[in-house]
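Bench notes, afternoon.
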Amino acid sequence: MREQRKVMVGRVTSDKMEKSVVVQTQRVSRHPIYGKVIRRHRKFMAHDENNQCSIGDVVRIVEARPTSRRKRWVVDAILEHVEA
């Protein structure tokens, strides 16, 4: 049986590269002792074959085989498109 690929949802922070975007994902959790809400974010480089993404778009990225040294994710769908 094949394993499921990881799927994440994030916001595009940079689209200046050719066929690549930087996607920032956010994870929300509570501090175990104080109960304060902690927001942690992480950036991933993703492959965007048709250069459709722009800054501010909410996208779904899927884990894939390495495309380059830093790219291991592919843009699966644009969930929310922001007009310029």
